[in-house]
Amino acid sequence: MSRRAVSRAKTAVPRCAGQGTPVRLAMLAAAALVGLLASPAALAQQGTVYRCPGPPVLYTDQLSAQEAKDKGCRTIEGAPITIVQAARPRPVAASGAPAGASAPAGRNGEGRVDPAEQRARDSDARRILGEELRREEGRLAEMVREFNNGEPERRGDERNYARYQQRVAEMRAAIQRKEADLAAIRRELSKLPPP
Description:
The chain is mainly alpha-helical. It has five helices and three strands. Helices cover 53% and strands 5% of the residues. It has a three-stranded antiparallel sheet. Helix 4 (115-147) packs antiparallel against helix 5.
């Protein structure tokens, strides 16, 4: 191949298959067509968007220039704006329950729990909390016994006195946490109505 043929090959413009027009022109034509089709939609969306002060801050394109000026709003230019629609409220049936949903078992029309069912729930809660309280009190008693008034027995791996002191401090903290847990369970029990 001669030098002239190589330079022509480098500068040759590829052509579209079967049409003989350069690819560059075809791409320009396609871009122009897309631009023409998109411009009416772009013009329709290009209203002036205002940011109005106050609690809550309002972003709107529904104000005229005079209304925006009166309210102290300023225009926002070039910033992308996301529109989030609020959730629509569900239609409510005449009985007060949402449409298509039946009232949960044990509830009457006003949304209150049946007193007998509430007493059953309270007794279940009292039973569960009582069992947990007894179990945690047993664990606390075991921890206090092992703690031995701040002088627990040394283990074989605690030849170093600092390691022993660290275990004593951990035991003391664990006992304090357990006592706080027991106080919380007692508080929960006190909130329940008497049997």
